[in-house]
Predict the structure.
Amino acid sequence: MKLTIDSSADALYLRLDTSPIVESEEVSPGVVLDYNKDNEVVGVEMLYLSRRSPNLDLSDLQLEKR
């Protein structure tokens, strides 16, 4: 799993695995799901990150495992 934040694109991308992406679908404004050949979600893109979370502090990014 890999999380990428692109400040210049104002976007966050969460890649769940490395299988090839064969289709993408915008499921709500600015939220795109990427699917593999088995129709499994393998990526999630969130656009307009600064508008969604105006007080976002990337230095405070945390990983929480349960």
